[in-house]
Each structure stands twice: as structure tokens, then as C-alpha cells.
């Protein structure tokens, strides 16, 4: 891993990102953002606040369609007992998002596997297995 530089400036829901590659900008809030990278690529991204789980790419808008996120203060059972309250999406919405992410991941893995050419096999005479006494 190398060193990098990035600085962000927020103006309400708007964000301007300065990096070595140039200037990028985006609009959105906690959990969902749409923007253009410093290299001119358009993207949409979502994350589940407080979990470190998220997705960034061009197919994100379809992934979020028809999921009621219902942001509110929720009890997160994976956190310590004395500090479980977080402002995040409902557990059902989290489960739906992770299910859709898993399906998308499998779909993309299948697409990538289809692009890789099959291994060529040798067409020569099959070799017989060596016997134990031949190895000595």
C-alpha cells in the first residue's frame, strides 16, 4: 500500500473531494451518495452506517430500489451491551441490503468466471500412477 492524499469539504449534502487525481464531487447523506470521481467516473454508493459495510459502483441504484430504510435510533445487538443504540437503518433493511449485495456479488463472480478462458488440457497419452515400489 502506498501513501495517498484526500481532503473533503462538505456544504450541506454536497461534498467536494480533493485528491492527487483531481477534484471530485458528490451529493447525498449518510448511507447514500451519488457523484463523479476525480477521474470523471460517475458512481453511486451506499453504506450501512456504523457497520463498515457498503457498496460503490454503477449498479447501486437498482440495489436500493424499494427497500424502506427507515433511519432511526436502533438497538444493534453486535455492539457492547452498554452502548448499543445507533442511528441507522432497521435490522430488516440491513438484512435485505446484505442479501441483495450477496446476490450481486455472486452474479458478478459468475460473469467474471465466464470471461476467463478454460484451461487447456494435454492431449497426450495419459500417465499411469507410479507404484510405491517404483518410487524407492
Molecular structure report:
With 136 residues, the chain is of the alpha+beta class. It is 25% helix and 33% strand. A hairpin with a 2-residue loop joins β3 (22-29) and β4. 4% of the residues are buried.
What are the key terms here?
136 residues, 3 helices, two-stranded antiparallel sheet, 33% strand
The number of strands is 8
Q: What fraction of residues sit in β-strands?
A: 25-35%
The largest beta-sheet arranges its strands as 1-2-3-4-5-6
Taking pLDDT < 50 over at least 5 consecutive residues as the criterion, the unreliable ranges are none
Instruction: Tell me roughly what share of residues is in helical segments.
Output: 25-40%
- The SSE string, one letter per element, is EEEEEEHEEHH
Largest sheet: 6 strands, antiparallel
**Silhouette:** extended
Give the averaged pLDDT, no decimals.
78
Number of DSSP helices?
3
> What is the distance, rounded to the nearest whole angstrom, between the alpha carbons of the first and last residues?
48 Å
Rg, rounded, reads 24 Å
Category from helices, strands and their pairing = alpha+beta
Amino acid at each position: 500500500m502506498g501513501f495517498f492524499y484526500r481532503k473533503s469539504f462538505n456544504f450541506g449534502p454536497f461534498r467536494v473531494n480533493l485528491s492527487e487525481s483531481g477534484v471530485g464531487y458528490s451529493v447525498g447523506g449518510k448511507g447514500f451518495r451519488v457523484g463523479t470521481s476525480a477521474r470523471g467516473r460517475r458512481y453511486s454508493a451506499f453504506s450501512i452506517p456504523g457497520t463498515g459495510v457498503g457498496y460503490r459502483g454503477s449498479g447501486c441504484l437498482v440495489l436500493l430500489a424499494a427497500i424502506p430504510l427507515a433511519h432511526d435510533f436502533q438497538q444493534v445487538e453486535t455492539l457492547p451491551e452498554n452502548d448499543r443504540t445507533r442511528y441507522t437503518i432497521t435490522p430488516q433493511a440491513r438484512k435485505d441490503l446484505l442479501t441483495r449485495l450477496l446476490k450481486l456479488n455472486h452474479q458478478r463472480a459468475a460473469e467474471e468466471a465466464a470471461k476467463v478462458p478454460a484451461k487447456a488440457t494435454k492431449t497426450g497419452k495419459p500417465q499411469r500412477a507410479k507404484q510405491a515400489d517404483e518410487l524407492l
